[in-house]
């Protein structure tokens, strides 16, 4: 492990070694629910198809909005023209599904191995199917992306497609459940901030504009490429912690309000009712969580904001906070709120981390699905980090649900013990 950084805050170190994380294809599971007239066509193998189908729990009677164009062995051997086949698959799909307005070609490990240029394919297909359908591409491959980086790659692919406007506006960036988005839209309206748009939009035609007057607020901590793409379009980021828990939500809203010159008294008045409701909801779970010792394996990149929420609002003791990547600029406000000396580990060396986890005997371990089963078999309670992406957890009204996600495995454990 490397030298601590920064000296007066958390102890940040890096590790390299074997990793255990999902690839970026997983993001399709929540992205396809958000953009309602989009379709995600993974250009990949049967393994990719199985991953998406099992992660999404496909319903037999639903018309799904994702699929896999399987690259067969003859494609891998270079015997078939993959571009021609892809054009055929896309043609058939769009003929059968006239409701699709935005088609993502999603790269995978196999498409990278055969060096299939999906950017070129997307441009060609866009020319053929525009204006009815826009075709974009991004990579969700396990070679290039982990888990939540798939959403980052998808949103970054949307940015060049956004219209230009230098008018003053707020752009909230990162997939949020519709119910959470509606709550935030109401709060921004009450604060007098507007117009407010969200990236991604709920429909292909609803994509926001961007330009020098755009101030953007990240709603998720894993959007480095998207932020860079927005910066390149002239937008400016509003530095803030993330809207997890009562405190995080207040600081996030306050940062936006300051950027838009809203008086502190108005911010206090608008946020007070939600803050009070969140406080009452959190009180119900504090007894269960206070003093409990938590270990985070690196997985979703949500680890640092979650650790901040759990330690400051729920009294949880942090043993180690692993994160696959640490964007020091985007996470600066979060790192400053962590208790001094918190062990933050960027990257992963799986065996070393498992050794430390076993030695520390945490009350709860937050990790990916692949690690949860073996740890549970060793009688160590776990929380699946993927649930934190599928469940609405941001904002005042969801603060109690967020705490409950961590309290539930402890409650279940105590019932089993009884
Ligand atoms: Fe596996 Fe790569 Fe397909 Fe992800 S993209 S499911 S890591 S083969």
UniProtKB/TrEMBL annotation:
Q: Pathway of this protein?
A: Porphyrin-containing compound metabolism; bacteriochlorophyll biosynthesis (light-independent)
Q: How is the cofactor bound?
A: Binds 1 [4Fe-4S] cluster per heterodimer. The cluster is bound at the heterodimer interface by residues from both subunits.
Q: What class of enzyme is it?
A: oxidoreductase
- List, alphabetically, the Pfam families matched: Oxidored_nitro
Q: What keywords does the record list, in alphabetical order?
A: 4Fe-4S, ATP-binding, Bacteriochlorophyll biosynthesis, Chlorophyll biosynthesis, Iron, Iron-sulfur, Metal-binding, Nucleotide-binding, Oxidoreductase, Photosynthesis
Binding residue positions for [4Fe-4S] cluster: 23, 48, 109
What reaction is this protein's catalytic activity?
Answer: chlorophyllide a + oxidized 2[4Fe-4S]-[ferredoxin] + 2 ADP + 2 phosphate = protochlorophyllide a + reduced 2[4Fe-4S]-[ferredoxin] + 2 ATP + 2 H2O
The EC number(s) attached to this protein equal: 1.3.7.7
Q: Which residues form the Nitrogenase/oxidoreductase component domain?
A: 23-407
Q: Any keyword Protein biosynthesis?
A: no
- Does Magnesium count among this protein's keywords? no
Task: Provide the cofactor list for this protein.
Answer: [4Fe-4S] cluster
Q: Which InterPro entries match?
A: LIPOR_BchN/ChlN (IPR050293), Nase/OxRdtase_comp1 (IPR000510), Protochl_reductN (IPR005970)
* Similarity comment: Belongs to the BchN/ChlN family.
Q: What does this protein do?
A: Component of the dark-operative protochlorophyllide reductase (DPOR) that uses Mg-ATP and reduced ferredoxin to reduce ring D of protochlorophyllide (Pchlide) to form chlorophyllide a (Chlide). This reaction is light-independent. The NB-protein (BchN-BchB) is the catalytic component of the complex.
Q: How does it assemble?
A: Protochlorophyllide reductase is composed of three subunits; BchL, BchN and BchB. Forms a heterotetramer of two BchB and two BchN subunits.
Protein name stated in the entry: Light-independent protochlorophyllide reductase subunit N
Q: Which organism is it from?
A: Methylobacterium isbiliense
């Amino acid at each position: 492990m490397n030298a601590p950084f920064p000296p007066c805050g958390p102890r940040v170190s890096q590790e390299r070694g074997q990793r255990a994380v999902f690839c970026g294809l997983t993001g399709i599971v929540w992205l396809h629910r958000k953009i309602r007239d989009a379709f995600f066509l993974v250009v990949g193998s049967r393994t990719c198809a199985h991953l998406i189908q099992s992660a999404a729990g496909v319903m037999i009677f639903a018309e799904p909005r994702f699929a896999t164009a399987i690259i067969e062995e003859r494609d891998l051997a270079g015997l078939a023209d993959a571009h021609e086949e892809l054009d055929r698959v896309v043609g058939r799909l769009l003929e059968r599904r006239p409701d699709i307005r935005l088609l993502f070609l999603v790269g995978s490990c196999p498409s990278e191995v055969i060096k299939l240029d999906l950017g070129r394919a997307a441009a060609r297909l866009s020319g053929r199917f525009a204006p009815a359908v826009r075709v974009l591409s991004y990579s969700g491959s396990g070679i290039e992306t982990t888990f939540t980086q798939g959403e980052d790659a998808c949103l970054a692919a949307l940015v060049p497609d956004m219209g230009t406007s230098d008018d003053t506006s707020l752009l909230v960036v990162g997939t949020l459940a519709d119910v959470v988005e509606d709550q935030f839209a109401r709060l921004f309206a009450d604060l007098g901030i507007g117009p407010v748009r969200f990236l991604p939009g709920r429909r292909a035609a609803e994509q926001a504009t961007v330009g020098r007057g755009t101030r953007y607020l990240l709603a998720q901590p894993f959007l480095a490429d998207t932020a860079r793409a927005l910066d390149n379009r002239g937008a400016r980021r509003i530095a803030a912690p993330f809207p997890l828990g009562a405190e995080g939500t207040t600081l996030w809203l306050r940062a936006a309000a300051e950027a838009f010159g809203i008086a502190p008294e108005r911010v206090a008045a608008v946020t007070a009712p939600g803050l009070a409701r969140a406080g009452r909801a959190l009180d119900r779970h504090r007894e269960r969580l206070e003093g409990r010792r938590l270990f985070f394996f690196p997985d979703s990149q949500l680890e640092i904001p979650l650790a901040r929420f759990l330690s400051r609002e729920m009294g949880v003791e942090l043993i180690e906070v692993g994160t696959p990547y640490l964007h020091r600029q985007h996470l600066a406000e979060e790192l400053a709120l962590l208790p001094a000396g918190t062990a933050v580990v960027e990257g992963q060396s799986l065996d070393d981390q498992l050794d430390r986890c076993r030695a520390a005997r945490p009350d709860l371990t937050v990790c990916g699905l692949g690690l949860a089963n073996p740890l549970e078999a060793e009688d160590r309670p776990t929380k699946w980090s993927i649930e934190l992406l599928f469940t609405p957890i941001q904002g005042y009204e969801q603060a109690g649900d967020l705490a409950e996600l961590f309290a539930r495995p402890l409650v279940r454990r105590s019932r089993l013990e009884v």
